[in-house]
Amino acid sequence: MMEDGLVLDVDIIEAELTKKVTQQVTQQVTQQVTQQVTQQVTQQNLNDTICKLYSKLGDAQQVAELLDISADTVTEITGQKECIPKI
């Protein structure tokens, strides 16, 4: 009888620990994925802005000054396939 109670207690404790660990892992993974996606979207938005400005201005140095970034960065981004204007 007493053993049944102990087994039940162990099962309850195990379930509680599993729930807590699952919540913690879920929270950590969600935070990491959110951070990664935010960084990717931010970078893509910056790339799109650089491409649009460059297509209008045609001058990497002007784009760099407007966005307060290096001209090398503008040149690197505008040289990518995604930034080449579609004909």
How do the helices and strands line up, and which of them pair or pack?
Layout: H1 2-57, H2 60-67, H3 71-78
Helix pairs in contact: 1-2, 2-3
Give a brief rundown of this model:
The chain has 87 residues and is mainly α. It has helices at 2-57, 60-67, 71-78.
Rg over CA atoms, rounded to whole Å, is 26 Å
Give the helix tally. Answer: 3
- Percent of residues in helices: over 70%
Specify the structural class: mainly alpha
Q: What is the distance, rounded to the nearest whole angstrom, between the alpha carbons of the first and last residues?
A: 81 Å
- Number-wise, the strands total 0
Question: Which percent band covers the strand fraction?
Answer: under 5%
Largest sheet descriptor: none
Name the overall outline: rod-shaped
| Helix and strand sequence | HHH
- Uncertain segments of ≥5 residues (pLDDT<50)? none
| Mean pLDDT reading | 89
